[in-house]
Amino acid sequence: MDFTLSKEQLLIRNTARDFAEKYIEPLVRRIEDENDVPRQIIDRMAELELFGIQFAEEWGGSDGGYDGYVLAMEQIARVSSGVSMILSVNGLGLGAICTYGTKEQKEKYMEPGLTGELLASFAFTEPGTGSDPRQITTMAIREGDSYVINGTKRFISNANFHGPIVVFARESESDEVTAFIVDKFCAGYSISEAWDKIGLKGNRIVDVYLKNVRIPAENMLGKVGRGFNILLSGIAYGKIGISSTYLGITLRAYEEAVKYAMEKKHRGQSIAKFQAMQLRVGELAIKLEAARWLTYRLGCLANNVKDPMTFAREAALTKSFVCENAVDVTRVAVDIHGSYGVMSDYKVQSLYRDAIIGPQIEGVGDMQKMIVAGTILRE
Amino acid sequence: MRNILIYSDNTDYACELLTAAHTIAGEIGYGVTALTINNDDQAEKLALRCGTIYRIRDEAILMADAAAVALVISEVAKKKNAPVVLLSSNRRGKEISGRLAHLTHGGCLTDVSGMTIDNGRLCCRRNTLGGATVVTQAIESDHKVIAVVPKVYDTMEEGEKGAITDIAVEAELSVIKVVEVMPKVKDSVDIEAAEVLVVVGQGMGSRDDLPIVEILAGHLKGAVACTKPVATDKRWLSEERIVGLSGRKCKPDLALLLGVSGQVQFVVGIRDAKTIISVNTDENAPIMTMSDYRMVADMKSVVPELVRAIERL
Amino acid sequence: MNIIVAMKQVPDLHHIRIRNREPVLDDIPMVLGDIDKSALAAAVELKETTQGRVIIMSAGNRKIRDTVKEALAAGGDEAILIEDDDLADEDSSVIAGVLAAAIQRIGDVGIVVFGEGSADNYSGRVFSAVAAILGYPQVGYAKRIELNDSLARVTRSLEDSDEIIEVPLPAVISVVSEIKEPRIPSVKNILKARKKPTAVYHLNELCVEVPAEKNITTISNLAPVSRRKGIVITSVDELAKILKNDRKPDRQAQ
Question: Which of A196, B51, B200, C23 allows an S-S link to B204, with CB 3.0 to 4.6 Å?
Fold first, then answer.
């Protein structure tokens, strides 16, 4: 057991940090105000091959492993969680295609998906259901060599970009949940206005309307009735991205709090001299390290998954901890700032808004605990 | 008698080097001499300020060839018993210095912003660690090459009646060739020369705030300068207006800093100002502790009000 | 043609703290300076036009092996390092001697590129000293370089003019940061960098003598003390009055 990063890992981290500070930071205000990520950021990320870190070279990735992915995501989220969520969701959609797709599907989507030309989405949730596949109402009706899909998907990221969207629908002949790849903005595809969420600005989430969307039958991802497996595996891997994002938020909150505590003076004395501040900073450091090493560990585990159920459990416990921890950390960071902490000039307020979202998305907190408990109380 | 020899391609800097040389010459009992190369006008000007001027007129010496110039200087220094050579720390001077030090086997320091004699040792001050600290170093070797930052020393007053002596040295044929010289399109404003500087930093939210800042600077008979990101990232002002490590080092009588946080790299360029006034929304900005006067306020609202207030006074 | 880029590892200036006026340098990560990275970016571009090879050269303590990986990721083809823990304290003339000795071991040298000054010290002396030792012509402060087989055409950026200079190869050239933005290495190149060759020399292998007597000794290195009045202003009128009045007595006093 050796918890040191290799020079290459440090370089991936530094590269992502340099990139984020140089190219994202000057645009953060705009991202927040417009709830949109300017195209130049996506192009630049593609140039630096940040979309493909975790994927194999065979498919155009850089073979940097999920551990490399976690390190880069942490640094990008440190500057803009909205940008890192775009990466995360793209990785989620492409990850499903890379794992379950046919050779043709991979050839069609992997390369453009890693060069930023296309951005992938992953669409399970519907207005009537959260995580329960039995409630799915989107239908894929077999008509000869094609499927016709109808339904509405809710809270979908990257749906405003061109690219593949992995849609979970009830296959008409088997009545079982099955995954399909749809090209966004094809005939019958439309999206709502973006939901106005309180944080994670830049990561637009919309509702996706599929109205008589006709796709060739070979666009089925995996086999008929395997949708639930693809979903479980997809969201387990997706939790690496969201955990890294919330680790980045935690890191930034810690940094902002420390900076403020060192600079702020009260009656001529640095507030860092007050024990109340010292206790808070100590608490933040402890919570940051805990979140960091759980997340790094998840990245390492993802490189070599032997048992998907075990991995799903590790992903669930990591996501659950890191997200809830981020709420605590950002809250304490706001406290250190006092009244300034809720003013829009201070970064920490946006981190707090981002943090509150974490436990509510990509599988709510209670769901994660049930997954963990399920692996323990099996008998 | 041993001598200090001064040389700069720039006449103004050469006149400053005379002042610099005199701050140490007396204590170590050296004379002060100057060298000009293919610059009669400079020789005349120096003759009003310095006793001995060696003048070289030799078109074979290519000023663009630092190696050739260094060789000439080393020959003169040797002939005229000048173990200490002062150069200006502009680009030409810095390029010559390393080469000259190699020829004389002397210790060499560039970007020197102050010199003292301490127990007979010649000590130089210069910024290091990106300007975070000032290092004091002694040159221990007998031969010394020192490149002095322009504008640190005042111009030598006229007074001395100098003699110009023409000398010749064997110049090497340059292998480099100057194809073209293009004068830089100069910003009409010289921030180094301004007595009053109004400096804008990233606290200036928009380019639209610039005209009113210009008006303010006009009222104060000053020039507008900026921090690096304002010129290089935002491109709201030309790069010649940058104050700091990678821009100009200014020492105005008065510097009014608007929305400048005060990173070390910037502070290096302004810390010699006589009076510093800062307006910043962040009372904890590092610049606040480095200011004579500080005001916690948004420059956006302060500047128009200030323009009106000055007009009223 | 070999294009050599001399780079210096420096403490990351963003991490330097000052305690009791002394800089705290312990545990500060070592990095390559931005101007050096610009020099590398320029060299990599030249390599693409000349089919040359970019060799990174650096002298420093044992951290240098790690530090230089970033340059290999950003486009260097190989690295030649002179590793010695005492080198960091040496005068620029010693460093120049060491670099020159290592350069002499490389054949087919086209140009040797330096940043105009190191990020920490900014002296810019090593470049011309290396040129002097090798007996190569030099051109400082390049903002543009074009290469052919035997000649470099360099645009030198001076304070008030630009000069276009032609210089025969091999030549030593220093560059200003405008020449090229530093390249941020891509993830793939980072991972490939570990396979690029790195040769490490020790001082004695290069037969460079480090003189016992130092030309330059450091007496102190302290953060400057600011002696400022620190008066708080609360109104614009007050500020206006100070701007109008403060300068006058000061100026008369001179």
Answer: B200
